[in-house]
Amino acid sequence: MTCMALFMMALLVVSMVLVSSVNARFVVQKSNIRILSPHNLRSSNHVGAMANFGVPNYGGSMVGSIVYPEKGYLGCNPFDGHEPFKSKSHRPTILLLDRGDCYFALKVWNGEQAGSAAVLVADSTNEPLITMDSPEESSHAVGYIEKIGIPSALIEKSFAETLKTALTKGEDVTIKLDWSESMPHPDERVEYELWTNSNDECGSLCDKQMNFIKNFKGHAQILEKGGYTQFTPRYMTWFCPRPFLLSSQCKSQCINRGRYCAPDPEQDFKEGYQGKDVVIENLRQLCVHRVANESNNSWVWWDYVTDFHIRCSMKKKKRYSKECAEEVMKSLDLPIEEIKKCMGNPEADVENDVLKMEQDLQVGRGSRGDITFLPTLVINNVQYRGKLDRTAVLKGICAGFKETTEPSICLSRDLETNECLKRNGGCWQDKQHNITACKDTFRGRVCECPLLNGVQYKGDGYTSCQAVGPGRCTINNGGCWSETRNGKTFSACSESHLTGCQCPHGFRGDGHTCKDVDECKEGLACKCDGCTCKDTWGGYDCKCKGSKLYITNHDTCIERNSSKFGLFLIFLVLAVVMSGGIAGYIFYKYRLRSYMDSEIMAIMSQYMPLDSHQNSRVVHHEAEPLRQG
Ligand SMILES: *[C@@H]1O[C@H](CO)[C@@H](O)[C@H](O)[C@H]1NC(C)=O
Ligand SMILES: *[C@@H]1O[C@H](CO)[C@@H](O)[C@H](O)[C@H]1NC(C)=O
Ligand SMILES: *[C@@H]1O[C@H](CO)[C@@H](O)[C@H](O)[C@H]1NC(C)=O
User: Fold this and answer.
1) Of the ranges 27-31, 264-268, 595-599, which one carries the lowest mean pLDDT score?
2) 541 pLDDT exceeds 70?
3) May I ask which residue range the UniProt record assigns to the signal sequence (predicted)?
């Protein structure tokens, strides 16, 4: 690098600070920590500063036991043994280490390797908490930094002392790490932005950023198309200090007369690509998003950026160019002219509305700190902490939805916490039919009555769930009692009732268990003179004395004798026909109502096949005059 280049770099850094130093601040994102045991420490609430690596459990929480290793409390070397901190009970281990001697990330990595579920680093002095950052790029750190997959936090020295004191007394120190408030989740749409750069020649940082965009593209587009998120790409620019406006450095690194600059990719003003090329491509990518957003397909930005990187990488000679960009736009059927119009004239001595806005936004506002490094992800106006990795970021975005409004992508396999595997997460379940209310989500498990084969279960999800509505009896018999004996089935579920279980006739119980009623013993039926009663499952058999026929619904015996029976039938039909008259009505209502069901008719026709013709004739003959009367 030439001296001049170094000088320029320094200047650019200074000017960058000018853009965002009005109110320069870096917001330390925090998670809550609560001591669950020992009991006397329960009342206090604490915070931890989330690290800028690893995977914070956005939206969720973790309960674990603190371990402070006597040997290696700095955590700078791998711990002896095979996963010495691996949880032996159901409760994970949260390792407490002291700050100092090596990178934060190395401590956390060693802790993870040793089987701990999270790492707390105790600050070494009394000071406001800081964010534990990834180490500067170094060949040594690159090996593990991306592999860290657990959450970690820096805690205050005094809080750490409290924990250590309790531990030295031999107490079991259990804490709850809680990230549920680390991400605002006010409504059912998440707004997020990625501060990025089209430069792909800046080493591992640029590669990391591009890999993230490629890996996250699928998720991002699903979320955007579904209207679940509003994503905005953001690009950082610098500006040229006034005294240097006419210098060749500013001319090669800036557009619009020094207003918008980016560092020269090779840090050599004479060779290869210029800073200006980067600013122009950044502007083009912004305009691709703007123009596409106007026709409601903003997600095309992800396609454009990934395609551009594949086809027009700086690594390919002279490919990082307007021509290549236009080829990509054409292949994606983007309106090139509109995008050009949005970009304006980079040579003109005027403000560019699009880039001006980006510069203004670099300064933090509200809960969001200044944008000081790339790439930076901002979700619901909070700077995301943790590694820029597909799953970790999705977790962060998902935690930004108001509970229960998150799209199904948030409930997918790779975000599960597997909390349902232990004791079914404490939720309701029907082991016999393999139905559970436990649902694994990124927030941890939820106990929610399931929807099975189109039938909704309702209940508190913890102790009870019941199928409700049509079709409920087809699944697990609506949770009701049912039993089959000798090919005969009785059920306490009825489709005509939307909920609940009722024991069928002949049974007694709460509907979940039903017991046969012994009608004979209880004297509920077969009380006719001389009848013999025998209980059956779900009913009873009643035999009348001699050859008499038992009529179930009326609990009475009638003669099988045809003439008498014929009379009875006449009597019966008479009553129906007479129902027009008051006498008939009374008779019908009080005497024969129960006779008139199909069961009786069926029994009759069965027992009197020979008499039926004659009887029906008689019936008609006798019936006519009565109707007129
Ligand atoms: C994208 O369009 C929506 C309306 O459809 C608008 O609210 C939003 O501000 C636009 N985003 C950008 C970056 O223009
Ligand atoms: C885009 O969506 C907004 C509201 O969602 C609507 O007002 C606008 O007309 C749409 N634009 C196009 C080009 O479909
Ligand atoms: C219960 O259902 C789950 C998924 O629905 C399945 O993975 C599991 O094997 C089932 N278990 C039994 C015992 O059928």
Assistant:
1) 595-599
2) yes
3) 1-24
Q: What is the pLDDT of residue 416?
A: 62
Q: Counting atoms of ligand 1 from 1, which one is nearest the CA of 290?
A: 14
Question: pLDDT digit string (tens) for 545-585?
Answer: 888 888 887 888 887 765 555 555 545 554 544 544 544 44
- Which residue's CA is minimally distant from atom 1 of ligand 1? 293
Q: Which residues are paired to 468 by β-bridges?
A: 456
Side chain identity at residue 345, one-letter code: N
Q: How many CB atoms lie within 10 A of CB 466?
A: 18
Give, in order, the Cα–Cα distances in Å from 375 to each of 151, 178, 198, 382: 20, 26, 11, 14
Provide the mean pLDDT of the chain. Answer: 81
Å from CA of 230 to ligand 1 middle = 8
Q: What's residue 232's pLDDT?
A: 97
Amino acid (1-letter code) at residue 281? E
Give me the sign of the Cα torsion angle 328, 334, 340, 346: negative
At 462, phi and psi to the nearest 5? -100, -50
Is the minimum distance from the CB of 295 to ligand 2 under 6 angstroms?
Answer: yes
Q: Cα separation of 80 and 279, whole Å?
A: 51
pLDDT class of 589 with cuts at 50, 70, 90: very low
Distance between the two ends of the chain, CA-based, in angstroms? 122
Q: Quick one: average pLDDT of 504-513? A: 92
CA distance 585 to 188: 64
Report which DSSP code applies to 588: I
- Paired tokens of 331: 């292949």
Ligand 1 atom nearest to 232, measured from its CA: 13
Give the integer Cα–Cα distance in Å for 15 and 23.
15
Tokens standing for 443?
Answer: 């927030």
The pLDDT tens digits for 262-314 are: 988 887 777 789 999 999 999 999 999 999 999 999 999 999 999 999 889 88
- For position 175, what pLDDT does the model report? 93
296 alpha carbon – ligand 2 mean position (Å): 6
Between CA 363 and CA 379 the distance in angstroms is 16
E strands within 164-253? Answer: 174-178, 190-196, 229-235
User: Rounded to an integer, what distance in angstroms lies between the CA atom of residue 387 and that of residue 394?
Assistant: 11
Task: Please give the domain boundaries of the chain with CATH numbers for all domains.
Answer: 3-24+184-411 (3.40.30.10), 30-178 (3.50.30.30), 419-468 (no CATH), 474-516 (no CATH), 538-623 (no CATH)
How is residue 373 written in tokens? 């490094």
Instruction: Tell me how far apart the alpha carbons of residues 529 and 538 are, in angstroms, rounded to a whole number.
Output: 23
Atom of ligand 2 nearest to the CA of 295: 13
Rg, Å, the chain Cα set: 40
Q: What is the pLDDT of residue 41?
A: 87
CA of 436 to the centre of ligand 3 (A): 10
Q: Are 380 and 184 in contact (CB under 8 A)?
A: yes
Q: Please report the pLDDT score of residue 393 as a whole number.
A: 93
